[in-house]
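idk why but the lab printer keeps eating my pages so im just putting this in chat instead. protein + iron/sulfur cluster:
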Amino acid sequence: VLVHLAILVHVAHWKMTGSTLTPVEPSEAMQTLELGYVNAGFLLFALAILATLILGRFFCGWACHVVAYQDLCAWLLARVGLRPRPVRSRLLVFVPLGAALYMFVWPQVARVLEGRAFPGLELHLSTEELWATFPGPWVAALTFLVDGFLVVWLLGAKGFCTYGCPYGAVFGLAERAAPGRIRVTDGCEGCGHCTATCTSNVEVHAEVAKYGQVVDPGCMKCMDCVSVCPKGALFFGFRPAHTRERKRAPVRRPRREYDFTWTEELGMAATFSVALYGFRGLYDLVPFLLALGLSVLTALAVVTGWRLIRSRDFSLQHHVLRQGGALTAPGATAALSCLAALALVADSAVVQRSDRLGSQLLDEAGWLPRGQREDLLERSLAHLLRAEAFGLVPVAELEFKIASILREHGETDEAIARMRRAIELRPDHLVARLALADVLMVSGDEPGAERALEELLAIDPEYEQALARKRGLEAQRARQP
Ligand code: SF4
Ligand code: SF4
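predcted complex ->
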């Protein structure tokens, strides 16, 4: 609650003064690594990692707004009698680590490979554009619905932490070195209440029996197990992280149970990869964390669909989907949802593949002299038109790219119409506004071109190319008799 209040105060401060502290959000550390900006998000992330190295994942358990949101979703589900149990997968648990490497390590590797130097550090603690790196309200709401509600319902109360959160992967690595642990006294009787209470998928009773402490890096130090233990045998305390002595023999650590066979795991991993390719950046709308959540859920949908076909009796969480070989009503809904998810992934993958191929060819054509581009432009147009045909929503950038090719082909009217549509979809698309002014000028509509330039300059009064073109138009008019 306090973290959410702090977020509200931050936004209110920005609205009232027009300038405020840069977003206090770990993803902002990407700017530090890429541009050298030392911002509030980077400082928070660095401090949280340092604290985790000593105390363990208290930050996750007590200060992460997404954990709070997942807790809220779990609480709401409990109100309607649904208590999701944690789903255990061997392969999907690597998603957060892969996402962290992709966000924080891969850009550095790419920089070294491209021979670019690190720009040097610079303090960036205030901004006038607090929301610049966040999605709009609809996409934000969808992200919370998917990464919060759906993931919690289908994968367990800490589903996003376990299967999606890239920062959690970093904290999980730091947690391994932390001396701060949930420890046990000799009072433990092995009843397992602690494990039943833990929403982070930790087998508390088995770990404390074997090691005298919780060693699972998924432990977020929420202290639920401590408060529920009927013997008061658990407590938070320090001990060297490498100490993993066997406490006593009677309770044997059971083999970790997984919910999927290896064939299902491999099918899920393959589905996840295709889905992430399709969803990431889809329609210039879907942010990375939403794409991760959607992809993990699609992977689960594939296994669910598979079991719905093959199993005589099958339940997902607490819902009976198939009984005695017959689909139940929830089972029929689940089957339709799985089909819809697969259709969406297939469609999204075609859109992304076509868009990327078309854009790549368009870029290549830009390096060639006129007269040698035709073949590349033709192929690019075919790919981009396919992306448009399969797309479910219009995309400003796609409209603009198609318009640019049509302009080269001399189809001026269609190019102008598409550029106008691109601007309608994204009024801040300044390059499209400039291109529209150019094409209007070439087609002889000087007043229209001037209007387009004025509208552009109203958004950015210092846009040099627009100023130059406006000066050119004025000079031309002055020369006319
Ligand atoms: S730590 Fe407490 S809750 Fe957990 S197994 Fe031991 S007695 Fe039971
Ligand atoms: S219930 Fe215990 S083991 Fe589970 S996350 Fe909370 S503190 Fe860690």
